[in-house]
Structure formats: structure tokens, C-alpha cells
Amino acid sequence: MFHQKVQDSKKNGECPEKINEVASLRCAFELFDANFFNDKKILEIVKGVKELNIPIIRANRKLAASVNGGLHNPSVLVFNPEWSKEQPQSIGKRFHYPSLIGTKRPKNEEDIAFMSVLELGELIKTKQITSEELTCIFLQRLKRYNHVLEAVVSYTEELAYKQAKHADELLAQGVYLGPLHGIPYGLKDIISVPHYKTTWGSKTFKDQVIDIEAWVYKRLKAAGAVLVAKLVTGSLAYDDIWYGGRTRNPWNIEEFTTGSSAGPAACTSAGMVPFAIGSETAGSITYPAARCGVTALRPTFGTVGRTGVMSISESLDKLGPFCRSATDCTVILDTIRGRDPGDLSSRDSPLDDPFLVDITKLTVGYLDDAEMEVVQVLASKGVNVIPFKLNYTVDSVQGILNFTMDVDMLSHFDKWQRSGQDDDYEAQDQWPIELRRARMIPAVDYVQAQRARGKLIQEVREIFTVDAFIGNATDWEKVCMGNLVGLPVIVVPTGFKNISNPPSSGSRRRTTITTGIYAPPHHDHIALALAMAYQSVTDHHKQRPPINNLGPNDSIPNPPTVTSPPRLLYF
Questions:
Q1: Close Cβ partners of 448 (under 8 Å, ≥ 6 residues apart)
Q2: Where would I find the Amidase domain in this sequence (predicted)?
């Protein structure tokens, strides 16, 4: 074909140099699925690109993309997951938490470490423990077990004791800020806190200090919570590999947490923090929560402000809590939700009070991959449970998410790629390959992906004929669909099974079993209420992982070890 075109061109009097130029350009056009222009049009396009497009591209890049991470100059194209056109009535109303009067301080620190947020809050409120004491307990646990789990990037010890002391002083003056008053917690290390490193898990940025108070940090600080550590994110919020190692699963330290909210999941599971804040673009809350057996909420898109947080995709990124229970997730969500002036996608979420939801009035679907214990428990509590299927017709859901996420990410790390810093990335088969490929996605096809996303949203809205549905939280298709549509989901521990190929004499290591409870956008309260109802009569979420006390006859090759101070390893 090429030889014939050359012959034809020669007959038309075209020079060989021009022929070769067009042939090379045509190969490039094939990469964009745009090899339908004739030779004359290709040369016209190239001339226009050089004279007009490239100068505009470079001017825009200079204006908006001179700093990596997407913390500045957000896109004005804002995704709104709202389905209802009705004006919500419950904006701004806070939840009514259950009273835990009579809660007593346990005798040992292991039991204190696994108390719920509300229980710890009651101990502080009744002055059975101080915030400084509690902060000390969790800082010690973080330092004791981080050698095993590789889950902490930096300890914010000086700040923590300062905040704890302030919380104790306020209480002595009769000022109580609420259930998070004096409660320690951790932040995923894509969330900026002044004077402390925000490394994004990457050796390229491991010395980076961003003097911005992230909105979610402001909300927690105002509620009296005490930041004790910046926790591991997979490098640039991808998986569980970071510049300091790879984060391990407390329930089975032979395997890793997945990610990218690796540190929040591992530290909450191991009782190293009472709760933590992670993020999700596509599975970064659901996957590590399921692997580590903790309760975690991916809220409706836009529920929690993202100012001061590294951005992958402005229409997909969400912040959410990792906790001991659905009740704790509810308390944390109530604290951090609300409009962030610096985040155009955030809004005052019209959530009803999860503690006041009458679940007997709900109809809940269950998919083929739902954990049936959850279905049966909810049915026993009066919920109308019915079989349910996600029968949308859009068959390119995973591709839509990849186009959206990768192009958006590249816009935030354009300078990183252009300067060759991607060559230093911790896992070359992850972001570097994806973002090089993203460079070749035409703008028109990115927009077409968003139009296909709109079709998906419309179809999911039409088939969502139940109040909520139960299904696997880590099925990749549902992860992609849920994030593209903006659905909230809560990951709920539902049991354990033996690890693969355990030693013949047995092991304490376990594989966790979880499920997801999904709700329509801005109906997080429904998912939370159902999860609380399930956990009110089960105790899977209260179990404690063995970390590396695997059993008397169990061992793994070269396992990480816990160092001083010596403590009980099985908890």
C-alpha cells in the first residue's frame, strides 16, 4: 500500500522528502485512531498545530501545570453526582449520637487501643483518661508495630502532644468539643499538614513540606481530634508500594495491604490508631479495608472537601474514614462533611441522621456475590431484602474510568513526566506506563468517555429501584461503576477463613471476608444505618489481628519482627 502511494505521488510530481514526511505523520495519526485524513489535510493539520496549538498548550502549561500534585488551579469542570432535583431539607443538621454512659476504662492498654471512638470519647469526657495518656498509648503502638507493618511515614509527635494538652486544658475549663475531643487519629500522607512532610509516598517528593492546612485536617482539629501520624500511601496514591517499603496486612503479614490507603487500613486494623482518613479514586478505600478487615466508608463524591490533598482526578477523588465500626464511620463522617470553599466539587451534603433511620421501611437488594449472612441478619431485623441485578448496558465502564483517571492524573503530574522523574518511580509497571499511554489520548476521546459516563449514570439511576444493595466491595467492575457514578459504599467485615496453604499445625493468620453496602448518591445514611444494624448483632468487626504472633508452629520466611519495648503480640 505504502509503495503504491509513493508511486502515485511521484506521478503527481511530489518530492520524496514530502512523501516520507507524510508517511511518518500518518503512522502517528494511527496512534490516535485518526488515520482517515488525506495527505493534504495531514500537512494542513501539522502546520496548524505548530502555529496555533503548541503555543497555546505551552502557555496553558506554564499557567496551570508548573507545580505537581493538582493542589492549585483546579479544573472548572465540576462533576455533580446528584440524582434528585428536589431541594434537600437536612443540610447542616448534625447527627444525634448514642449515649455510652457507664463506659469504664479497661485495665490494660491493649483493650483501650481497640475501644470505639465513642467509647474513648466517653472515657475522656468523664475524665477516666486524659488525651495526653491516650496519645501516648497510640504513639507507642505506632512505633512498636510499624517495624512489622511499614505503615507510618512520619510521626507528628510534637504536634500530637500539643493538641492533646490543649484538649485536656479545654476539658478542665468545662469546654467539651464533642465525641472526637482528644481522640488520636492518622492521615493518609497525601493530606497536607503545615510543618510536616507530605511525601505522597514517593521518593521524588519525600522531603516535600506543603504549608497548607488541608480542609479535612481543619475539620478534625476544630473537633478536638489529635493527629499522631502521617500514614502510608502507595507512591502517588497507587497500590501499597512506597519509597520506604511495602505495607503489610495485620491479619496475615505474609501478604500486603493493597492500596493506596495502605497505612490507614493497616493502622486501624492493628489498633495503632482509633481511626484514620484515607482516599479513593478507584478502590483505594475499598480494597485495603477489605484486605485488612476494617469498616470503611467511601462517601458520596463531593461530601468531604479536598483542599490540601494531592489530586488524581477531580471528578473521582474522595476522602473517607477507616474505623472500628460503622458507628465510628458515622461519627467521623459527620465531623468532616460539608462544603469546602477551596473545593468546587464539595457541597453541604443533605444526609439524614443514620441513627434515626427506620430500616424496617427499607427495601434492600442483594447481588449474587453478596455475603448472605448480612442479608439474613438484615432480614431478621425487618428489612425487606430482595434479589437484585445491575443490568446497565454500558460495556466500557472500566475503560471509561481508566481514561478519566489517567488523563486527569497526567494533567496534575505533567511536569513530573516531562522532566523524566517518572523514571525514578517505585513501581515502573504502574503510573509511569499508564501516564505515558495517557499522553496519547485525544481530547475529543476523553470528552467522549465523559459522555459515556453520563449514559452510565443515567442507566444506574434508572435501575437503582431499591434503597440500597449488598454486593462485593472489591469486584473491579463495581469499583469502577461506583466511582464513576459517585455512589457511597461501606465495607463491612463479615468473617474470616483460613489462609491459603497454612502450616499443617495451624496458624492464627486469617483471610478476612467482607461485603459492601451501596446506596444512591447522598444516601450514605442508608448504608451506614444498615451496616450499624448488622454490626449490632455480630462481632466480626471487633476481632483483633495477630500481626506476627502467628501461632506456636507457624512461621514465614524472613518475617518482619517487632522490636522493643516488648509487649503482647497477639491482640
A1: none
A2: 133-465
User: Contact 312/75 with Cβ under 8 angstroms?
Assistant: no
Backbone angles phi, psi at 354, to 5 degrees: -60, -30
Which has the closest alpha carbon to 367: 229, 222, 471, 234? 471
Tell how strand 363-366 and strand 468-471 pair up: parallel
The vertex-104 CA angle with 102 and 106, nearest 5°, equals 160
Q: CB of 201 within 8 A of CB of 425?
A: no
Task: Record the cell numbers describing residue 163, joined without a space.
Answer: 493538641
Distances (CA, A) of 299 to 81, 291, 468: 12, 19, 14
CB 232 within 8 Å of CB 244: yes
Interior angle at CA 490, CA 486 and CA 496, nearest 5? 140
Radius of gyration of the chain (CA): 26
Q: How far is CA 113 from the centre of its chain?
A: 24
Average pLDDT over residues 127-146: 97
Dist. CA 137–CA 515, nearest whole Å? 31
pLDDT of residue 554: 73
The pairing of beta strand 248-249 with beta strand 245-246: unpaired
The answer to whether the beta carbons of residues 275 and 332 sit under 8 Å apart is yes
> What order of strands is seen across the sheet that includes strand 226-231?
152-155, 226-231, 184-188, 276-280, 318-323, 295-298, 489-498, 510-518, 468-471, 363-366, 384-387
- The pLDDT of residue 557 is 52
More confidently predicted of 494 and 23: 494
Rounded distance between C-alpha atoms, residue 405 and residue 312, angstroms? 7
- Whether the full predicted model's pTM is greater than 0.90, yes or no, is yes
State how beta strands 295-298 and 152-155 pair. unpaired
Handedness of CA 281, 286, 291, 294 (dihedral sign): positive
Q: Contact at 8 Å (CB) between 331 and 295?
A: no
| pLDDT for residue 171 is more than 50 | yes
Q: Which residues are catalytic?
A: 188, 260, 284
What value does the mean pLDDT take over residues 220-237? 98
Q: Residue 281: helix, strand or coil by DSSP?
A: coil
